[in-house]
Amino acid sequence: MSQLRVHNLTMSVDGYVAGPEQSLQHPLGVGGERLHGWMFATRAGRAMLGGEGGTAGVDDAFVVRGDVGVGATVMGRNMFGPVRGPWPDEEWTGWWGPRPPYGHPVFVLTRHARPSVTMEGGTVFHFVTDGPESALARARAAAGGADVRLGGGAATIRQYLALGLVDHLHVVVAPVLLGDGERIFEPAADLAFRYECAPPVAGDGVTHLVLTRRPR
Amino acid sequence: MSQLRVHNLTMSVDGYVAGPEQSLQHPLGVGGERLHGWMFATRAGRAMLGGEGGTAGVDDAFVVRGDVGVGATVMGRNMFGPVRGPWPDEEWTGWWGPRPPYGHPVFVLTRHARPSVTMEGGTVFHFVTDGPESALARARAAAGGADVRLGGGAATIRQYLALGLVDHLHVVVAPVLLGDGERIFEPAADLAFRYECAPPVAGDGVTHLVLTRRPR
Ligand SMILES: NC(=O)c1ccc[n+]([C@@H]2O[C@H](COP(=O)([O-])OP(=O)(O)OC[C@H]3O[C@@H](n4cnc5c(N)ncnc54)[C@H](OP(=O)(O)O)[C@@H]3O)[C@@H](O)[C@H]2O)c1
Ligand SMILES: NC(=O)c1ccc[n+]([C@@H]2O[C@H](COP(=O)([O-])OP(=O)(O)OC[C@H]3O[C@@H](n4cnc5c(N)ncnc54)[C@H](OP(=O)(O)O)[C@@H]3O)[C@@H](O)[C@H]2O)c1
Fold first, then answer.
1. How many CB atoms are located within 10 Å of the residue A120 CB?
2. What is the CATH number of domain A4-85+99-213?
3. What region holds the Bacterial bifunctional deaminase-reductase C-terminal domain (chains A, B) (predicted)?
4. Which of A16, B54, B83, B176 has a CA positioned 20 to 30 A from the CA of residue A209?
5. How far is Cα A13 from Cα A175, in angstroms, rounded to an integer?
6. Secondary structure of residue B36 in the 3-state scheme
């Protein structure tokens, strides 16, 4: 069965996956860029930015695994970009340049309809206005049996967690404090029963935690 | 200068240091007892309960360090016990039996006055009704130049963090989900500037994070 998987989601010690005041200058909110240092030190992380070199240890393995077996991605509109409200035009096509590192269909949750955008290298952005279950169904169909990756951000992950639809949640705790921003965990008494957490894995200056859904 | 130090404060992956519904049966709230398994596997943790044996690695070292150089403790009334509201009588004298593992004066924050209680082995519980700054001043005086340990719980730590009075905050992340309960981190934009976090230290199934206050 096709799974819904979150990978490399990096959280501060105080529980935020994005800092406050997201903008063009601060895609991850103020201070949020400090979260992902570990990833851009890895070989796979550098390759994602078109670079070379990088470490090839446990952090790199986690980054690589995030893409394996994935046939489509779902993300929230704030992860797609800094534009808010009705789209003023169709200029914004994501943070990732003409050739985004997805290479498959990406379903962007938003309340603001927009025609699909075809990028180089197999990435097509589709804008889904009828909610998370519809976005997942469309992503599953597009993935043709492969898994669906849930990219983020926080609001999107919170909804899929509350719906009980996330199968695999890889959280990376970075030794960073953000003070404020977006959390993925909100009070939800049944979360404790629905997921289990594997023993932590020490990376290079970060900690990897993998939550998996208990069998129903 | 005498420091205010938090040690061995164990937090779930979803950010709680106590589960919901604290009671006599569930001192750490429902599910919260799973947080401290790592501590009671260590030699120092077992000794605290009057037991023997236990591991002597990095986790044990962190537990031991928590008591060194400490001359007084401050804690919140919910950490002291499950009784809420005005004290019905003076029977409750803490979770720790006749000889609590403090061995020094302990200042319990509460809005409900109560005479001090002298226990065996040097522990005296004082009840402080005029707020956290007063409790800390009294603890500092009692510690006679030594450090003050801030025991918890969540509400108490949140207040001392907000006041900028915590010097050392050792948080242990356990691979546990609680779903709901008490958090120590609440949105506080300046926290990110006031503290820095050392690289994580891998324990036996848990991760140690040490936050220290930046010099002013
Ligand atoms: N730390 C990490 O590893 C990591 C990973 C991924 C992302 N991030 C960061 O997370 C931040 C984004 O997270 P976020 O919580 O602000 O937002 P988000 O989840 O990316 O997007 C929220 C937006 O998605 C749309 N949306 C969500 N649910 C919807 C629904 N049920 N129906 C219709 N539209 C829906 C809405 O857009 P409209 O307003 O258009 O309706 C909503 O405003 C960014 O800073 C990103 O960089 C961090
Ligand atoms: N995970 C860990 O490592 C760890 C460590 C320590 C404790 N804990 C757990 O944390 C939980 C307790 O935390 P909590 O957040 O519920 O409560 P808490 O901080 O222990 O106590 C809160 C109470 O302290 C008193 N108080 C706090 N601030 C005050 C002020 N400014 N003035 C007067 N009184 C004040 C009030 O008592 P009154 O209602 O009497 O006024 C308040 O209800 C327990 O379950 C404990 O086991 C966990």
1. 10
2. 3.40.430.10
3. 8-192
4. B54
5. 6
6. helix
- C-alpha distance across the termini of chain B, in Å: 14
Where in chain A are the domains? 4-85+99-213
Q: Residues in chain B, how many?
A: 216
Q: What is the mean pLDDT of each run of 10 residues along chain A (216 residues)?
A: 97 98 97 97 94 97 98 98 97 96 98 98 98 98 98 97 96 98 94 95 98 89
Residue where the block lists tokens 């009075």: B165
Region B121-141 average pLDDT: 98
For A100-166, the DSSP string reads -S--SEEEEE-SS----EE-GGG-EEEEE-S-HHHHHHHHHHHHTTSEEEEEE-HHHHHHHHHTT--
Decide: A155 in ligand 1 pocket, CB within 6 A.
yes
As given in the structure block, the two tokens for residue A67 are: 């893409």
**Tokens read off for A124:** 């097509």
This complex has an ipTM of: 0.95
Q: In this structure, what token pair is assigned to residue B80?
A: 């002291």
Cβ–Cβ < 8 Å for A132, A163: yes
Spatial distance between the Cα atoms of A12 and B209, rounded to a whole number of angstroms: 11
Are the beta carbons of B75 and B153 closer than 8 angstroms?
Answer: yes
**Torsion B21-B24-B25-B31 (CA) sign:** positive
Q: Is A121 exposed, middle or buried (0-12, 13-18, 19+ CB in 10 A)?
A: exposed
Query: Strand A16-18 to strand A105-109: parallel, antiparallel, or no bridges (unpaired)?
Result: unpaired
Instruction: For B56-102, write each residue's pLDDT tens digit.
Output: 999 999 999 999 999 999 999 999 999 999 999 999 999 999 999 99
Confidence tier at B177 by pLDDT (50, 70, 90):
very high
Phi, psi of A18 (to 5 degrees): -150, 145
Whether the predicted pLDDT of B159 surpasses 90: yes
**Ligand nearest to the CA of residue A82, numbered in listed order:** 1
pTM confidence score: 0.97
Q: Is A35 in the pocket of ligand 1 (CB under 6 A)?
A: yes
With an 8 Å Cβ cutoff, the interface of chain B facing chain A consists of: 13-15, 19-20, 31, 171, 173, 175-180, 183, 185, 187-193, 195-200, 202, 205-207, 209, 211
pLDDT score of B216: 72
Contact across the interface for A13 and B185, Cβ inside 8 Å? yes
